[in-house]
Amino acid sequence: MTPLRIGIVDSGVNAWHSHVRGAVDGCALAVSPDGRIVEHDDFRDRSGHGTAVAGVIREGCADAHLYAVRVFDDAGAAYPSVVARGILRAAAEGCDYINLSVAIPPGPGSSALEAACAAAIEAGVVLVACAPPGREGWLPASLPGVHAAVADPGLAPGEVREAGGRRFAAC
């Protein structure tokens, strides 16, 4: 049986972390000084968030092949166009699922993000995005076909409940 391929579009992943070890590949995307999106192979995590996500995924799917796409720059910022390219990059790598720990307000770049999500979903990829409380309509969690994940401290650790319309709450 072929192992699941799970994309993590986030701050990168420390592939050598004790909670992550296993099959991990990836890339990093950035905006060059002339405004182009460029790719390189240094997907190391600068903040630890993507590594934490990878650890949680690895705990539930120990044999999964993880593909990290670092889309946040060293200042912790991410452009919608870079996130969109990250989604397409993970889909091109054959990821079955893509975790998106980003919440972007509607506005400039929304159309690129919408198109990337639609293309990935059409290719059969399951997209899961965070839906921070009080940020209804933010992307990509509010887009059609994207599964939204909402934190709910009222649930027991490990408990998940359906919150309606492709929205799931978890603790």
Radius of gyration: 15 Å
Separation of termini?
A: 30 Å
Mean pLDDT: 91
Helix run count:
3
Strand content: 25-35%
Specify the biggest β-sheet.
Answer: 9 strands, mixed
Shape: globular
Major sheet: order of its strands?
3-2-4-1-5-6-7-9-8
Beta-strand segment tally: 9
Structural class, by secondary structure, is: alpha/beta
H-E order: EEEHEHEHEEEE
**Can you tell me the residue ranges where pLDDT is under 50 for at least 5 consecutive residues?**
none
What does this structure look like?
The chain is of the alpha/beta class. It is globular. Helices cover 22% and strands 26% of the residues. The chain has helices at 49-60, 80-92, 110-122; strands spanning 5-10, 24-31, 37-40, 65-70, 97-100, 126-130, 147-151, 160-162, 167-170. The chain contains 3 helices and 9 strands; from the N terminus they run E-E-E-H-E-H-E-H-E-E-E-E. The mean pLDDT is 91.
Search tags:
single chain; 171 residues; alpha/beta; 22% helix
Write the layout of secondary structure elements.
Elements: E1 5-10, E2 24-31, E3 37-40, H1 49-60, E4 65-70, H2 80-92, E5 97-100, H3 110-122, E6 126-130, E7 147-151, E8 160-162, E9 167-170
Parallel strand pairs: 1-4, 1-5, 2-4, 5-6, 6-7, 7-9
Antiparallel strand pairs: 2-3, 8-9
Helix pairs in contact: 2-3
What is shown here, in short?
This protein is an alpha/beta fold.
